């Protein structure tokens, strides 16, 4: 099953941007994400429309985060990306007149809706500042381990 990694990529980019004191170009972000600048610009467009980032042109230009990380949740980023499907499980519709299929589809639809509601609620609770703090803690731990073994 193909996975949609746009949310992961957008979060990755936002955290890199937040760690920098200067704007990041699309090429800079693309290098961090191991992709190309066109993909970055396409992803950033939704984030810009949602007011999460802005971009400047010319020398010294690039992308910057426009709000404090403590005010941005995973849900905000998810919504800015156009609310892509969170769960990929679907049901068959070849024979919608079949009573068995109707029961199966109903059970799947109800369960998937409940699961999505839980996931979206949790996305709203997680702030980018929490993720940035976790990144800084892991980086410090990694640096300390490298220092001891080096």
UniProtKB/TrEMBL annotation:
<dbReference type="Pfam" id="PF02082">
    <property type="entry name" value="Rrf2"/>
</dbReference>
<dbReference type="InterPro" id="IPR000944">
    <property type="entry name" value="Tscrpt_reg_Rrf2"/>
</dbReference>
<protein>
    <submittedName>
        <fullName>Rrf2 family transcriptional regulator</fullName>
    </submittedName>
</protein>
<dbReference type="InterPro" id="IPR036388">
    <property type="entry name" value="WH-like_DNA-bd_sf"/>
</dbReference>
<dbReference type="InterPro" id="IPR036390">
    <property type="entry name" value="WH_DNA-bd_sf"/>
</dbReference>
